[in-house]
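Late entry, written up from scratch paper. The run itself happened at the end of the previous shift, but nothing got recorded in the book at the time, so transcribing now.
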Amino acid sequence: MITTFLFDLDGTLVQTEILKAISYARAAVQLRPADLTEAEVIAAFGEVVGLSRQDVVKFLMKRFELEESAKSRMVELDDATPEEAYVHLRLHIYEEMLSDHQVLYDHLLPHNTGLLQRVKSQGYRTGLATMSHGKQARRVLDILRIAPHLDEIATRDEVTYGKPNPEIYYLVARRLGVTHEACLVIEDSASGVKAALNAGMGCIAVTTDLTRASVHDSGLLDLRWIVDDPGQVETVVDAYMREQG
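Output as recorded:
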């Protein structure tokens, strides 16, 4: 019996994944302005959406050969490694985006946040499991006034391993005092879906333009539990709940 709903943040409650993609892309173009476009990097980001910052940085730096140019910025940026220099540039761009609260409001995903508010009002336990780091996640949650609807929040800072490892979902369930079988996870990415399933939890994927292909191609979920039209999320959730009895 489902007693608890667990939500991802980026790409699920708010479409910050595209903002992150843009920030990674602009930082990469700063490092290689002569021969790299934002569109190339954004497309590549789609292959690792939902993974931890460390994994995304490693992937993009290797894909676009950013190490040497990032190394040349280390002294200027006061960073110890090329990876830190790339992250430094990217976070500066991302923070500038977040400083405009209207940007976040414009990227809110109302059907999924509506589902969160509904299940909370119905007495279900609620939690958040995000690969965003704590400072950024809580800033987004506070600006959008989402935090009051969540009983527990877990961020990348609190776990050793990122999704698709199930550690963060184990953590939220333990804090809520519920069994894994009692949890239904709402995710958007293949890595997030895999993390939920690895934790022994049910999962519904509400895809985005960045994640749709990878979720379908992964074969992780029955098509009934993949929502490509977010307006159908509550209908699909209700069907899942009826099937679970």
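The chain has 13 helices and six strands.
(Scratch paper discarded after transcription.)
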